[in-house]
Amino acid sequence: MKISREEVLRVAELAHLELSEAEAETYRGQLDSILEYVDKLNEVDLSGVEPMAQVLFSSDDANQTALREDVERPCNAGTKLLNQAPEARKPYFRVPKVIDR
Amino acid sequence: MSASANWTISSVRDALTAKKISARELTDDYFGRIERKNSELNAFLTLSKDRAYKQAAAVDGLVAKGNPLPCLAGVPIAIKDVLSTEGVRTTCGSKILENYTALYDATALARLEAAGAVFLGKTNCDEFAMGSSNENSAYGPVQNPAAPGRVPGGSSGGSAAAVAANLAVVSLGTDTGGSIRQPGACCGIPAMMPTYGRVSRYGLIAFASSLDRIGPFAQTVRDIAEVFCVIAGWDPNDSTCANVPRPDYVADIDKPVSGMRIGVPDEYFAAGLDPEVRTKVEAGIALLEKIGCKRVSIRLPHTDYAIATYYIIATAEASSNLARYDGVRYGLRTNAATLSEMYRKTRQNGFGAEVKRRIMLGTYALSSGYYDAYYLRAQKVRSLIARDFAEAFGQVDAIITPTSPVPPFKLGERTADPLQMYLADIYTVTGSLAGLPAISVPCGKTSEKLPVGMQIVGPHFSEGRVLQIANAFERAGGFAI
Predict the structure, then answer these.
(1) Are residues B167 and B295 in the same domain?
(2) Residue tagged active-site, from B48, B159, B179, B440
């Protein structure tokens, strides 16, 4: 067994998901078989292999992405964004209590 | 099919210029067909009629004045619902964004509209583009117009079905592990993923940032080239967009392909490939040889590790990208007494089963103690997969493979076992991991009349060459082989 029920619940907590009992059990089984399958990566000899951190980095195209100049530009999206927020008290988003005291 | 079933970008342009039809009439024609067919196909989630008719009127104004028409003038287009559209609902196929409206347009759409295209609406897709059958949409599955009762492929199933059913002349989809090419194959139309960095992703709602790409579906390879001429190229709003010159793909498309070396990887014609798909793709390769390409047998030795690599990297990136859906700033919120409870309940209610599964897998792969064993290891194997292709492209100009190992399957047939669904992505995830451009072209049908797709993969930024080969294949009758 690659992953236990406790680990599934721990991962759900990290990911801010609240799984039902049934879901936890289904995901445990499914993640288990996926992780079992992924184990085949252990067969590969990776000595001296660098991780691929940039898609175009390994080719001649490496320097062809270019950043724009870092200059301020007006952005007046605030009100429009707040208008479709689940709950807002302008100019803020409103959320439930963070700490009970 | 109506008499307009064969509209292409150039025939629309010619008909408008000759005043045989107005942009308004063409727009009416497409909305009429959408209204008749969409209840059955479920390809569109939201229509943008105001915007479409406004654009059609502008195009008709140009025609009336005798002004030159931009290259996509009056062309009805559909946009996958993971691309942001100002003032038009953008759901990502998810309940969590059911009532979300973007504040700006994706660059790809803005460029299509600037070139005169008429934006009809947003197409159905797997939730956050996670799926290979379009069955993971919160808004129901899409029917395959080319194979009733079967999946249209995914995740861009709605975009593929819209073009295949002539509910749009061209559409945009997105491809992370095959989500443009595989639905193109399932619905029997050409569909292309460009090189990573070729098309701006500004306004694309992220799934896996090192993999996601935007590309078109169309009736013809030439129309695919026309769309890339408009959407490809540097965008200061996307730091991952490459600043490389964009060739004129349309001008070059009829260049001869004789003498081109096409690589056929042994590993892609091994166990798991449906025998009828194999026969069709072999016939496709034989046709390419007949028109002058030279077949070369090649090896891509790390192919067998691609699915495992892809599903670790894609889910890890997804778990990070989807952390933003927390009920605070936009989208669904489920109220609760405390902030952390609100996060959990919102995400629990808003995400579907596949999205949660991938967030869980990705979170696990990135979590303390497992990072080296999963994510880092997968990133290293990804280097080897990219190296396989780099070495192969030392010997060949392009690589030919099946797009999918199986023809489109029946709706509901494969939903029970996620791993089995993932394994069918084997021929598309490799090009995704290596950042390569790849097109799927129709390559005949099986004995049950199910569409088969053939994939043509090229080196980075070789879209022009890939399109030439695909176009030559189409002109030689390859689509109906």
Answers:
(1) no
(2) B179
